[in-house]
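Worked problem 6 (solution included).
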Amino acid sequence: MARASCRRGRSWLALWALQAACAPNDDQHPEPSSSASQSTSTANTTGGVSSTSTANTTGAANTTSDTESSSGVDTMGAAEAAGGSGAFAGSGGVPGTSGSGATAGEAMLGELTLYYLDVTEDRVMALATDGGPPELVVEGAGDGPDGIAVDAAAGHLYWTNMGVPADDDGFILRSDLDGSDVRTIVDPGDTYTPKQLKLDLGAGKLYWGDREGMQVMRSNLDGSELEVLVTIAEGPAARQDRSNHAVGVAVDAAGGYFYWIQKGAPNGGEGSIRRAQLVTPDGEDDRTRTDIEVLYAGLPEPIDLDLDVAAGMMYWTDRGDATINRAPIEVPEGAGPDTREDREVLVDGVEVAIGVWLDLPAGHVYYTGTNVVARVDLDGRNDTVLVQGAGILTGITGARRP
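Solution. The predicted structure is:
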């Protein structure tokens, strides 16, 4: 595994990372416990960066996003970068609390730090939502950073890099919370164009969608024991059909399912949300498994996904119609995946809607788009902009400060 040299910062982020590093090393992490938009957006911070608390990592030279350039599949332009998001409660993420304007009850949950990816500058950013500007965590964070997840207890960040789609050279990196000790855990070429990333800390696993690879994959937290869970299609001709492209992922470890999005053509009404069992049925494999369920079909162009398992709801971004959405996980009685009409738009007008992460204890959805990090209540109220003018943003996740 390649390893890059990094320097430790001196900011609040570095102090938090030091706390995590000095905590008892617990390799067996406890499993975390598991509306239309009508409010106005209020900007709280700008896209300015306060301090560079971290250092460079290595990666391929040519940055690509979900623009799917001529070297890949699409030619959508820089304004259509897509991405993925990190972990969620119940599958390895550490749920956070509110940002500015938090209630007293939310404050009791602890201070929330958001981590998100800026594909324009290939960097990892952090935002302490109790105030202050974004802070640089990793500069030169690879080649097309897209999906991000955090293991706060172990003091680690994980993120995917799409690489150059035509070159089949995607990879996954890990760092400490302050951005130091950046290392490659899934080597270039072991995954094609990895997208949204989720953790299942109870099982010690990473999950991600592989867009041009047309697969859903997982590995151990150190990148070992790489597995293909689903192969949607194979070959160059199938790769041209974007309805085969796996992007967003989510995990319901207790329920025994993983979920993924197949995005389809840009705003083409081909997108779908699917799930299968974490354990492949006996006698079947990633190509032949028969337990795949289509939960929602005919969506404009869904990208990233997160779950509220207790409430039976799934949340996703849709780049095609610039929305943040939710719907019941289960298909309503009497309807089918392509005929159900229970999709609820929480926020619209989100240019290049990409990342989504649920802060379930505080009742919030955090999301990214072009030039924006924002928060909305789970029911679509109180849409609030946290960062503006920040470039093309992809994945987002969060963790509470210990």
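Discussion: The CA atoms of residues 5 and 163 lie 21 Å apart.
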